[in-house]
Hints:
Elements: H1 2-14, E1 24-26, H2 45-51, E2 55-59, H3 61-68, E3 78-83, H4 86-92, E4 96-98, H5 101-113, E5 117-121, E6 128-132, H6 138-145, H7 150-153, E7 158-162, H8 172-176, E8 182-185, E9 187-190, H9 200-204, E10 210-214, H10 227-240
Antiparallel strand pairs: 1-5, 2-3, 2-4, 3-6, 5-6, 7-10, 8-9
Amino acid sequence: MKDMEEFTPVLYEATWMKGETRDLRTIPVSESVSPDSEVMPYESAEEVIKSVRHIAVSDCVCRRMTTLLDKACDRPVETCFHFGSSTHYFVENGLGRYITQEEALAILKKGVEAGLVCQLGSSQTPNALCMCCGCCCAVLMELKKHYTKSSDLVNSNFFARVDPDECTGCEICIDRCQMNAITVDDVAEVDLDRCIGCGLCAVACPTEAIRMYRKDKEKQFIPERTVMESNMAIYRQRREQ
């Protein structure tokens, strides 16, 4: 397990961080988005869950690994969702269990309350949804290494904005942010180079001073329609680098 811990950063640098399309894309917590900003169905965890027939849930591999290394955090572990035909693989191999849409939405809510980032598969019809923390998740940990432009490396269409007139400087958002993108000096300030648009800060703000807004069109990521098309895009882009 120690060898895997040392190898993982090398793996992600050589594969996941190449190209423009990542294996996972960050989506905002739905209620964190400003009413003025449109949210597409493939950008909503709730809408994806409600649209599929088969759902399975399994333990987060990253938090399981940190548990074995005695480095685990106290966040929920059973938080990885699988959709469609992939659900049967996880259940039949003893890696997960079938759940209903209602159960999935309850787990999703619990994960958001615990401060977990929602990351869907890279296609518009994803086969997975991970709920990740910045202390255990290999993806977020790798993103945090790129201090200057983490936001450019993640497939996310949203960013956080603070209304200084509404902010009380309570610092709840600092604890919620998994990317260390927020500082508070009287009022909260968001480092847009580090913000990945998850909305965890906004959903917990007691005065709703933080809301999520859609990026300019030229900075938006439009997922491929199917998992196969997404995988082929990832393959082509990594080969080109």
